[in-house]
Amino acid sequence: MSSSSLEQSLRQRGISRREFLKFCTVMAGTLALESTFGSRIARALEAPKRTPVIWLEFQDCAGCTESFLRASRPTVAEVVLDVLSVDYHETIMAASGHLAEEAKAATIAAGGYLLVVEGSIPVAEDGIYCTIGGRTAVDILKEAAAGAIAVVAVGNCAAFGGLPKAAPNPTDAVGVMDLVTDKPVLNLPGCPLNVVNLTATVVHFLTFEALPEMDDLHRPLFAHGARIHDNCERRGHFDAGEFVQAWGDEGHRKGWCLYQMGCKGPMTYHNCPSVRWNEGTSWPVGSGHGCIGCSEPDFWEWGAYNQAEIFDAAPPANYPPVEQPAQTISPASAAAIAGAAGVAIGAAGVATAKQLSKPEK
Ligand code: SF4
Ligand code: F3S
To answer: Ligand 1: which of 230, 231, 259 to mutate, most ligand atoms within 8 Å of CB?
Structure first.
């Protein structure tokens, strides 16, 4: 798509050149690049080539697709879809049945596409728990991955197995990287994924012709390189030993720390505090509920909504116990606890997240 035709397309959607350039600068910031990269991003998005995309859905709730369609302005639909060619997406494509399958087959035959996968893949009993058009998800995934430049697994289900993998995991659900080992696989976990991170990944891919730098769970560092706890607006209350102890109590009304209500922010690596949700309006902790760790492997086993189970989820030993009244922790000792815990988790880094996939009890 040429610069003028992209501009024309954006103008038709009521997006000015200024807004487009602002979007490029915001993307540079999200990717932790200097703002000067904004112009390079703009040039990449204006390039005539449109990258084909195949978007597969397996054991999912389509929540990530919903997230994808509800990006803020300029939206994914308005900008990224102008530079991508989504040739196959069961939820949003107009074609169905044989026509849809033919569109996918043509894209696979041409090669050079980006494969996006949403939902986990069941491998029990030869994969019969998820079939589309008479073929198993395992089969469909392997065929589509073979010709892809790279695979992006969106949401916790595609990345790590997500809710379908929760015990007792009746379908033996797995994530994409368990099955695709000969292609670059990037995980964008979250339940659902944050579309800002998908947009930034696509922008990075189009600008640098490469996936962004990843951690050992295949998550982009720009989105998953920092712990929620270290960027949380309630962290000052944690350090001061000020904890919510019951929903609606005085501490809750004052915005105190949600750790004793089960917040998994100390074990979760995600950029939610800075990127936020719903056009940057808020995020789980900001709205008064603890983080449930939705960007980590097997987060459902952590007792997402259960404060009593937080210690089963591998908390650092030197964290204040849930039962301990906040008032007994002086600000000085709370700061020391927080500091020690930060070092404990920080030093382990991503390895900690990996260990958490099999919590030690
Ligand atoms: Fe924020 Fe949760 Fe950490 Fe408290 S425990 S500071 S609410 S991330
Ligand atoms: Fe998920 Fe926690 Fe962010 S629940 S959306 S990682 S605040």
So the answer is: 259
d(CA 83, ligand 1 centre) in Å = 38
Please check whether residue 56 is in contact with residue 118, taking contact to mean a CB–CB distance below 8 angstroms: yes
In the Cβ-directed half-sphere of 113, how many Cα atoms lie within 13 Å? 27
Instruction: Compute the distance from residue 269 Cα to the ligand 1 centre, in Å.
Output: 12
Q: Ligand 2: distance of its center to the CA of 353 in Å?
A: 14
**Distance separating alpha carbons of residues 177 and 190, to the nearest angstrom:** 16
Distance of CA 159 to the CA centre of its chain: 9
- Walk along the chain (361 residues) in steps of 10 and give the mean pLDDT of each run: 60 77 85 84 78 93 85 58 76 82 92 95 97 94 95 97 95 96 94 90 88 92 94 94 91 94 91 89 93 92 64 43 34 37 29 29 30
Amino acid identity of 76?
V
Length of the chain in terms of residues written: 361
Measure 173 CA to ligand 1 centroid, in angstroms.
31
Three-state secondary-structure class, residue 154? strand
- Dist CA 274 CA 194 (whole Å): 12
Reference 316, options 259, 276, 236, 232; nearest CA is 259
* CA-based nearest residue to 75, from 19, 114, 116: 19
SS3 54: strand
Pocket perturbation via mutation, ligand 1, pick of 238, 242, 247, 310 by most ligand atoms within 8 A of CB: 238
Spell out which residues line ligand 1, taking CB within 6 angstroms: 228-229, 232, 234-235, 238, 257-259, 263, 265-266, 285, 290-291
| Contact (CB, 8 A) for 187 and 153 | yes
- Joined tokens for residue 122: 């069941």
